[in-house]
Amino acid sequence: MGSLIDTARAGRVLTIEIVRPGQLNALNSIVLGEILEVVNEAQDDDSLGCIVIRGCGDRAFSAGADLDEIRGVDIESAHTFIKAGQRTMTAIADSVVPVVADVDGFALGGGFEMVLACHVVVASDRSRFGLPESRIGCIPGFGGTQRLAMSVSKPAALLMMLAGERIDADRAWQIGLLSVPPLPPEVSAAEVQRLAELIASGSRTGVANILDAARSAFRAAALDHEAALAAVSIAARDGQEGITSFAERRAPVFHQEMT
After folding, report:
1. 53 domain-assigned
2. Which residues touch 167 (CB under 8 Å, ≥6 apart)?
3. Distance between CA atoms of 179 and 172, rounded to whole angstroms?
4. How many domains in the chain?
5. Which residues on adjacent β-strands are paired with residue 7?
6. In this predicted structure, what is the pLDDT of residue 220?
7. What's the per-residue H, E or C state across 95-112?
8. CA atoms of 82 and 80, how far apart (whole Å)
């Protein structure tokens, strides 16, 4: 199997593209590992001023974690997958090189959590965002329970996570998820390039210090707690029922008692 991401360099801007259009750019361990490697390598490249992450095609940035990889897993395996996702999202969030999310289409579940880890978010007006994990008996596990509440108000964050509904790009702008208002796809792509080049033209030290100061309140311990709960949720009876029902395109049948 070849690489599941493509990278392209233009001046001081590096673009990472997830190349799984047939799976709506779903995040599996390979994708997560490849993005992690590229982002980590970028930290030591002083000639680099900005990273852009996007999804291949016009349907999705990423529709979320690859459920085929966590179907039928036990708690230990689920925890391993969740921590791999968290490592990638943390590397993006902690990057000294600013990271721009170029969203066109769906950004759901783990894909939306990747957007939340980015420093700047630009989206086309046909984009949709959501954390639907509650609909399949799971919880966001790649940092979403923490980063969403840091990006928008707590009530808005909890509603998105508890209801699991998708919101459109206009609503995402209204609640503070986007850096600029949503734009038509062709205009959005040009704006991503403009902003990336503008960011890349700044002082590397100054930009890194701004990012460091802005994330100083993030609690790493909360991610460990999230990962533990996410692993339990995935491996539990309701979690596996939700994942299986999604694959089988039917409504899940959840047990009402806590398991």
Report:
1. yes
2. 128, 129, 130, 160, 175
3. 10
4. 1
5. 16
6. 63
7. CCCCEEEEECCEEECHHH
8. 6
Name which of 85, 71, 69, 114 is nearest 226 in CA terms.
85
- Annotated catalytic residues are 113, 133
Looking up residue 93, the CATH number of its domain turns out to be: 3.90.226.10
As a whole number of angstroms, the distance between CA 247 and CA 112 comes to 20
Cβ 234 vs Cβ 73: under 8 Å: yes
H helical segments located in 60-164: 67-70, 75-93, 110-117, 144-151, 154-163
At 217, the amino acid letter reads: A
How many alpha carbons lie under 13 Å from residue 161 in its C-beta half-sphere? Answer: 20
Please state, in angstroms and rounded to a whole number, the distance separating the CA atoms of residues 178 and 116. Answer: 10
Per residue of the chain (259 residues), give pLDDT as tens.
589 999 999 999 999 999 999 999 999 999 999 999 999 999 999 999 999 999 999 999 999 999 999 899 999 999 999 999 999 999 999 999 999 999 999 999 999 999 999 999 999 999 999 999 999 999 999 999 999 999 999 999 999 999 999 999 999 999 999 999 999 999 999 999 999 999 999 988 899 999 988 876 666 667 777 777 778 788 888 888 888 888 888 888 877 555 4
Domain containing residue 124: 5-185
User: How far is CA 138 from each of CA 63, 158, 227, 255, rounded to the nearest angstrom?
Assistant: 16, 14, 11, 13
* Helix axes of 29-42 and 75-93: crossing angle, nearest 10 degrees: 30
